[in-house]
Amino acid sequence: MASLFGMAAVKSGDIVVGLRVADAFKKLSDKAGTPIDFGVGPKMFVPAALTAFQSSKTIDLVGITGPLDFDASGEVCSPIAAYTLDDKGGWTKTAVYTPACPSATGTWAPAP
């Protein structure tokens, strides 16, 4: 979903290509931007994000795993969790990736 928002955040009229999408990721983790929480469901967060982009505003993404923060080059700078679907239709956290910001490397570890 964050990748789709990155594409949507590319300046209107520009071609949506890799470097422009990476550059647009700066607009996704602005603490002063419009809060966008994936937990409220797409009927709520998608229109809110698109409205912000159409008004040349930034957003502050919060994903299912928590805040989604990116560095100046568009690299993830907050922990990301991997989930599996359990036998009751719920999500179980199975691993966590912790990036070593500001570099683009990090480590995966079993979920606590």
Give me a quick take on this structure.
The protein is an alpha+beta fold.
Low-confidence stretches: none
**Oligomeric status of the shown chains?**
single chain
With helices defined by DSSP (H or I, 4 residues minimum), what is the helix count? 3
**Mean pLDDT, rounded to whole units?**
82
Strand content: 25-35%
- Major beta-sheet overview: 3 strands, mixed
Strand order of the largest sheet: 1-2-3
What's the helical proportion of residues?
10-25%
- The count of β-strands is 6
Order of helices and strands: HHEHEEEEE
Rounded to an integer, what's the Rg over CA atoms? 15 Å
In whole angstroms, the N-to-C terminal distance is: 25 Å
The 3D shape can be described as: globular
Structural class: alpha+beta
What does this 3D model show about the protein?
This protein has 112 residues and is of the alpha+beta class. The chain is built from three helices and six strands, in the order ααβαβββββ. The strands form two sheets. Strands 1-2-3 form a three-stranded mixed beta sheet, with helices on one face. The chain has a three-stranded antiparallel beta sheet with strand order 4-5-6, with no helix packed on it. Strand 2 (59-63) and strand 3 form a beta hairpin. The two termini are 25 Å apart. The relative contact order is 0.15. The model has no long low-confidence stretch (mean pLDDT 82).
What keyword list fits this structure?
single chain, 112 residues, alpha+beta, 3-stranded mixed beta sheet, 3-stranded antiparallel beta sheet, 6 strands, globular
